[in-house]
């Protein structure tokens, strides 16, 4: 097929096709005498993939790597691109909401510079929180041994005491129906999400760690895995019946936990449920008491572990939920493991 025909068939221009050739993405055969290019069926398929990836925002250089790197599948690349687009989309939404606020506070001939500045600072802070979260714990490295490590007993501080009980309680409490969609955030190797599969529930697992997602997919191919973040979920608005999460939220400081709860609310359907089991204290006084108890018995490891992460103050989370119109129930399995169940009524 000649370039003109190809361009017509794929709804593009000869110029774009020559551009991809110059960039080394395609190399159709060329007639040395007249410089005509001849495209085979295989060239056409490759070109249509390039055009499709360009359409969903892939830069040309990334497409080249993707088509030539056998170590990563197209699905993995698409997953990465999807998260990147969701992050951009969420950033744009925040910017639009800020402009809406500015417009609301402006009359035809006056505005308050102080208000504008405060709104802009808030936006700047949000952007920086979303960008700056880093995985200090290196979950990619933990993925292969994670399931074995959580079974180990005999540590002076065992954060996984009550793990099985908490996961079972989440499933029991949410009591989802066949055909419902459940989102597990920080899914890790899929220990919680997979418990919903037998009931005919669609499970989407989000995690920031590529290796955790690989492990999860290997163990539970039915789970749909998506690379993404608590603070910018790669999920459309109001599209899931339940959000669940176990042992993950405590990797976010309190200020970020609130943004995570807002994200959960965004993706939840009306009447949806959120159930979180995690390392948490009932409140500030409880935290101080538990730490004092560890100090009294000289358990320095426990104190250091608690200081290294962001165990929640359950009362702050339940306040947030009730202010947002959720009905809440909460439990404490032991001195460090708690659960919040919240149901939305609109
Ligand atoms: C301790 S593991 C728990 C895994 C699983 N939920 C379980 O109960 O076994 C924590 C998981 O949360 C993920 N995670 C931590 N912070 C996250 C964040 N900000 N966004 C998305 N995932 C996160 C980690 O990558 C890891 O897979």
Automatic annotation (TrEMBL):
InterPro entries: DNA-bd_dom_put_sf, MerR-type_HTH_dom, Methyltransf_25, SAM-dependent_MTases_sf
Protein keywords: Methyltransferase, Transferase
Alphabetized PROSITE patterns for the sequence: HTH_MERR_2
Molecular function, one GO term: methyltransferase activity
Protein name listed in UniProt: Methyltransferase domain-containing protein
Pfam families membership: MerR_1 (PF13411), Methyltransf_25 (PF13649)
Organism: Ornithinibacillus salinisoli
Residue ranges constituting the HTH merR-type domain according to the UniProt record: 1-69
GO biological process: methylation
Gene3D superfamilies tied to this protein: 1.10.1660.10, Vaccinia Virus protein VP39 (3.40.50.150)
């Amino acid at each position: 097929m000649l370039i003109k025909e190809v361009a017509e068939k794929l709804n593009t221009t000869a110029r774009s096709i020559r551009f991809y050739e110059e960039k080394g993405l395609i190399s159709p055969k060329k007639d040395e005498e007249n410089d005509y290019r001849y495209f085979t069926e295989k060239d056409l398929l490759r070109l249509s993939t390039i055009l499709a990836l360009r359409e969903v925002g892939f830069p040309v250089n990334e497409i080249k790597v993707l088509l030539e790197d056998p170590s990563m599948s197209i699905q993995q690349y698409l997953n990465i691109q999807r998260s990147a687009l969701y992050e951009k989309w969420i950033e744009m939404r925040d910017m639009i909401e800020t402009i809406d606020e500015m417009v609301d506070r402006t009359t035809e001939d006056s505005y308050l510079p102080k208000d504008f500045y405060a709104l802009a600072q808030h936006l700047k802070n949000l952007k920086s929180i979303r960008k700056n979260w880093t995985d200090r714990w290196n979950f990619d490295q933990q993925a292969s041994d994670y399931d074995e490590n959580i079974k180990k007993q005999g540590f002076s501080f065992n954060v996984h005491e009550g793990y099985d009980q908490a996961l079972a309680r989440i499933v029991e409490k949410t009591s989802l129906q066949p055909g419902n969609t459940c989102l597990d955030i920080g899914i890790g190797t899929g220990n919680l999400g997979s418990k919903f599969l037998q009931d005919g529930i669609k499970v989407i697992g989000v995690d920031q760690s590529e290796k955790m997602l690989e492990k999860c997919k290997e163990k539970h191919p039915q789970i749909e895995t998506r690379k993404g973040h608590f603070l910018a979920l790669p999920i459309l608005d109001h599209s899931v019946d339940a959000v669940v999460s176990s042992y993950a939220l405590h990797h976010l400081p309190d200020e970020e936990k609130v943004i995570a709860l807002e994200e959960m609310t965004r993706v939840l359907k009306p009447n949806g449920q959120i159930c979180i089991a995690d390392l948490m204290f009932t409140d500030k006084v409880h935290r101080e008491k538990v730490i004092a108890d560890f100090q009294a018995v000289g358990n320095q490891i426990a104190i250091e572990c608690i200081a290294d992460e962001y165990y929640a103050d359950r009362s702050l989370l339940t306040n947030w939920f009730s202010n947002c119109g959720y009905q809440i129930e909460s439990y404490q399995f032991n001195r460090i493991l708690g659960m919040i169940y919240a149901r939305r009524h609109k």
